[in-house]
Amino acid sequence: MFDWIQHFADWLVYEVFALGKGQHLSEALNFFIYDTIKILLLLLTIIFLMGVVNSYFPIDRVKNYLSRNKLYGLEYLMASLFGVVTPFCSCSSVPLFIGFVSGGIPLGVTFAFLITSPLVNEVAIGLFVGLFGIKTTLIYVISGILLGTIAGSILQKLRLERHLTPWVLEILANAQRDQDIFQAEKQSFRQRLPVIWREASNILKGIIPYVIIGIAIGGLMHGYIPEGFFEQYMAKDNLFAVPMATILAVPMYSNASGILPVAQVLVAKGIPLGTAIAFMMGVVGLSLPEAMLLKKVMTLKLIAIFFGVVTLCIIISGYVFNLIL
Amino acid sequence: MSKVIKILGTGCPKCQSMTGVVQEVVTANKIDASIEKVEDIVEIMKFNVMSTPALVIDDVITVKGRIPSKDEVLKLLS
User: According to the UniProt entry, where is the signal peptide (chain A) (predicted)?
Assistant: First the structure.
């Protein structure tokens, strides 16, 4: 499917720039051109497709579904699945949180959504397909969904409602179960298309610099670092590698799109995939900016418990991947 | 009659660009309207929106979670 991009990169590097095959510089450049084109194309496609889904299935509908239907324990899984198809901007996480909880959705189910939504989003999926292939992407997506489901159920069991900030508790006390019926915007696909397209290109524009820098660093490492280089430092049998990688990753966020291309090279050069996935989940799923936003609705203690449980789940899944992959 | 426009958003870049769009439409078409930015989350939640930015015209939520185009804003205002 991507052969033509490889041909183009080969042609550009070996013919147009007349660089010799097998040199560090030419291999790094070839990798950079190939990866940039491939990943930007995939990102555009996936962001656009998710935009289409989202246009027909907006967040209000998700909320109504979750608060209306008795799901007999499946609500955590459903909230996680909705998290995948509903991209949300992190600046919306507070209104979203309150909207969910005051709509009668249990705290744990809300957490399941809040965990999976940033973890398995359109940008992460696009980058994963481009960098690691379909199989690893599927593993990542499925484990992201399971992680949200499991962490959400655990958080519900801990009965954390009392750790919400006072004004949220007040809203909850006065909240009545939402009875408003969701009115979908009645628009034809042709009316929706320009809006979806504009949103998709805006998202892409926002992340392009990070992606290109990430691929450039990845390209340099690809050309200059020998195969198996990292194995001596981060071997599979190093028990501390997974927790270290995860804890390092949790505070990071803004450069998520830049970090995945680097991580791909790390894996190619010998870092175990489970360790790398744990690292990427930490980067994509939890971040300091998110914690700052959530401070408006949660006490520090609740944020700490939330981050702690999710970090623990990420570390465990890192170990599991290293065992089975 | 003067219209009351409220823009709900916690101050993220998207909310700012929505304000820009609305402001431009109002000035360019000389629409009689006041624009108010609502950044307090407690106030925002009174409108029961879950995704910001949201555009409220005369207390009716017209757009939420995305940035409308100028044409769309103009249509909503006339």
Answer: none
**A159, part of any domain:** yes
Residue found by looking up tokens 């042609």 in the block: A11
Whether A81 has its CB under 8 Å from any CB of chain B: the answer is: no
Segments in A57-74 forming alpha helices (H): 59-68
- Encoded tokens for A93: 């996480």
Reported pTM? 0.80
Residues of B whose CB is below 8 A from A98: 41, 45, 50
What tens digit of pLDDT does each residue of A184-228 get? 566 777 878 888 888 888 888 888 888 898 888 888 887 777 776
A176 in a domain, yes or no?
no
- Does B12 qualify as catalytic in the annotation? yes
Whose CA is closest to A70, among A224, A177, A176, A212? A177
Is residue A1, in this structure, part of any structural domain at all?
no
Q: Which numeric CATH code is attached to B3-69?
A: 3.40.30.10
Residue of B10, B11, B12, B27 marked active site: B12
For chain A, the domain total comes to: 1
Residues 6 or more apart whose Cβ sits within 8 Å of residue A15: none
